Amino acid sequence: MAIVSSAAFPFPPFVPSLALPPKTLILTTRRSLISWATALVFSSSSSSLLPSSAASSPLPPPAAGFFEIPASGGVKALDLRVGGGATPVEGDQVAIHYYGRLAAKQGWRFDSTYDHKDEMGDPVPFLFVVGSGKVISGIQAAVKSMKVGGIRRAVIPPSQGYQNTSQEPVPPNFFDRQRLFTTIFNPTRLANGEGSTLGTLIFDIELVSVRHP
Prior knowledge:
Layout: E1 2-5, H1 30-42, E2 67-68, E3 76-81, E4 93-102, E5 108-112, E6 126-129, H2 137-144, E7 151-156, H3 174-184, H4 187-191, H5 195-198, E8 201-212
């Protein structure tokens, strides 16, 4: 099997906590929630998001603004860094690092592969096979048009996010997992017609490697 890997990435794509919206702001529609999330994550330049330790190797400015990925069901993406390696196809195993945040909780970070460490203390990337159907559709749509070494921010609407609690990636921490799914699948709020807003996700994704079968 051939493996195509990105160069060592000395720091994760740091994302600060999103500011709370004003109390007078009521997000009642899917469009308003996605627009708020998109505007907020795009409002700061990429260089201002970096920890001080990365000052010597800053990310370049985004290549362009947010765009909707074709045939993705409404996933919007912003390329923070365009990779120079291979692009995955159906059947490839990919390794990614990610930060996952929930827009309905003001950008609460529910999971990060940089917190998943091996016995040596190194972060462990998340692996999946493109086209396997095991991961949420929005992540697969975002990754399929990336190149190894690239970093992309994806705003994923509920229809392309978690449809059940078995879809990956699943936060390993029980309390984070419980908070995530009780928010997305809250029966009272779903009954009130809020299903189109509860599950909007924001993922920062780095495509680390592609393994061809």
